[in-house]
Design a protein that fits this description.
The structure is a homodimer. With about 400 residues, the first copy, chain A, is α/β, with parallel strands linked by helices.
């Protein structure tokens, strides 16, 4: 048989998961003078909760309350039990915040390694962008990154891949933080899928050049998670939440068109951008549409007239998927080498503890070598992650 | 040979084209007292134009100026010549505004019939929604519809299919206008892809029930053109226009998710909704994602828990394409019977005068009977359009 799909020696490397920061992440690292205003956990009954409600865990930072410590961290529940978002550490899986439990959960799930996005700081650390005291915020960013590098991933460097955040309010500081973290072993940078929605200059300015240069120079991809723009897709205030959830991928489409028609990949030709949680089934349509637009409108819209945008995508961008039959069936049009796999633990899109089982099903019709690329080798190349690379059976 | 693709007897019926209203559309029909404030054409040098500029044609309505009489009406030019938008009737093809010239241009293009959206009133007539005097605006809506029914399409009822607009500020008046126009032979209604962006209630209210009931009762589809929400996709103020053009389809995706998670198709089970100019290549990905979301989130988000959303799409919705190789390759997943063809004359996406040639190319690998469905028979069924239906060779 040519197809055996997901073989035992192929290691699942996920490019989109989430860590829920434990209560002492910042208290353990910030100077004593910061402890009162830096992020810390308090127990309180959330404002507006019914009388007699159990107190929840709430992040307190600069006197503001952030009540959703574990938004959407419902892995392991049945869909019928989704909806009451957990708001205490004892209501979520210990694997959310404890690296030993995380690795155990990954073992149960058949997953070799994960790239985890932050929770309290938001996917791209934009909570610190919104902070009043930017000096403190800078220390908070570094504390988060040191937590990821020295504690979370250091527990199991062959299983947990370090993704760091940057001080978004200053591209020079951000570049310096990328370099500092890369020297400590970071493998990727979380960066917003759009910056204008955060009140920052667009990808069509030179503002972000120091960040792009540092990412290119260190080889760290910029990982753009759906929603990191702070603007989820929305149709109407009274539309069911399901509408927004189903439209996540549109944010990744916006980011793709925006980047491909910008000067970014012309100026930074080795820059890597990985889209997270946006799916891949839309890529063939969108690249065709982007090229069609480029063919017809490149002469007066101020875009590069020499390079077909889809060629840039196939050089500079990656996508990832959880459960995207439509995307896999179009993998040759997307480019097999553009596709990575994600488990999204502990969020509601995750198939945990059946990720490997589900991956086996969706990859059933894909030839062996392509499966291996998609679940493991592409992510290794994207992230420069070589731990436990099996050079014999992995053909890597 | 099984495949001969687009055969001579197959008639191209386009579900998305545009009429540029000639200067006397409203003057010919409004009562004398309305003539001063109703829409009329004046000649003037647009404000801000360089000194010595040639005067352009501008619509004047309620003392406001609408300078772009023929936005994007560049059919027949080379892409290198796009960009300077025509602003006089003598700068555009006579086929834009003269039905005889239009039919000649359709003959040159190999197109049997077209469904034309308005220009000055905007795709769904929202200029009249924004008018101060709603009594006058109502007369303007009726005048436009009478122009379409009695003049534009009456010139060649077998070639031009009547699409009408409605007074969006009052769903009961809108329903009455649908009934009035259906009785006069209208085949479709232009309706916004989203209403909240226009300051109107959403599809998740009962506000639009009279409109949906009238459309269902008369059998007229609601045609939702990209951009009719008044909110084109945009990433950044300084992004090239190409970004917005390439992302048009996202508006159709928003409309699809919004409708499929609403109560609309549960309450109006025979209602037909046709998306215009949004492409089709995204449909398999988006339906898979919508179903995935429904599987996981239907129990707490207030959506219908019994009917899979993709089943509603395959009963109630249609898409259309100009040049969507990705979509055609996925036609079985979309549903061949969901797909219609469009020429988009006289806009920049159009392949005029090579529409039939280009359709032959993109349909080259599609079996005969499916080509016939896609270019002709689906549109006939959607629109109830039977003129020149060839019962023998058309197998219709």
């Amino acid at each position: 048989m040519f197809f055996v799909a997901l073989q035992a020696h192929m290691k699942l490397i996920s490019t989109d998961d989430h860590v829920i920061e434990h209560p002492r992440v910042w208290e353990d690292r910030l100077p004593r003078a910061d402890l009162e205003v830096g992020p810390r956990i308090i127990e309180m009954v959330p404002a507006g909760a019914p009388e007699g409600s159990r107190p929840g865990h709430v992040w307190l930072y600069e006197k503001r309350q952030y009540p959703q410590i574990a938004l959407n961290a419902v892995a392991g529940r049945k869909p019928e039990e989704f909806g009451l978002e957990p708001n205490r550490f004892d209501e979520i899986l210990p694997g959310c915040y404890d690296p030993k439990a995380r690795v155990d959960d990954m073992d149960a799930d058949g997953v070799q390694a994960q790239l985890c996005f932050p929770s309290f700081p938001k996917f791209a650390g934009t909570v610190f962008l919104g902070a009043e005291d930017k000096q403190l915020a800078g220390r908070c960013v570094r504390a988060y990154n040191d937590f990821i590098l020295d504690e979370w991933c250091a527990f199991a460097p062959d299983r947990l891949i370090p993704l760091v955040i940057v001080p978004l309010w200053d591209p020079h500081l951000a570049a310096a933080e990328i370099e500092r973290c890369a020297a400590k072993g970071a493998k990727a940078v979380s960066f917003p899928e759009a910056t204008t929605t955060l009140g920052l200059p667009s990808f069509h300015t030179e503002h972000w050049d120091p960040v792009f240069a540092a990412a290119e120079e260190t080889g760290l991809p910029l990982c753009m998670h759906f929603g990191s723009s702070g603007k989820p897709p929305a149709t109407a205030a009274d539309a069911p939440l399901a509408v927004t959830i189903s439209l996540y991928g549109c944010n990744s489409m916006y980011a793709t068109a925006d980047l491909l028609f910008s000067r970014v990949f012309h100026k930074f030709q080795r820059l890597k951008v990985a889209l997270a949680e946006g799916g891949i089934g839309w890529v063939p349509y969108m690249l065709e549409r982007i090229d069609y637009t480029w063919e017809r409108h490149r002469f007066y819209t101020g875009v590069d007239i020499d390079t077909r945008p889809s060629d840039l995508f196939r050089r500079n961008m990656w996508g990832c998927f959880i459960d995207d039959v439509s995307g896999l069936s179009q993998r040759y049009t997307i480019g097999v080498e553009r596709i990575t796999w994600e488990s999204d633990y502990p969020h509601s899109d995750s198939n945990w503890p059946n990720s490997r089982k589900r991956a086996t099903e969706v990859l059933a019709d894909v030839p062996d070598d392509e499966v291996h690329q998609i679940v493991e080798l592409n992510a290794r190349e994207l992230l420069g992650f070589t731990a436990d690379l099996d050079l014999v059976s992995g053909r890597g």
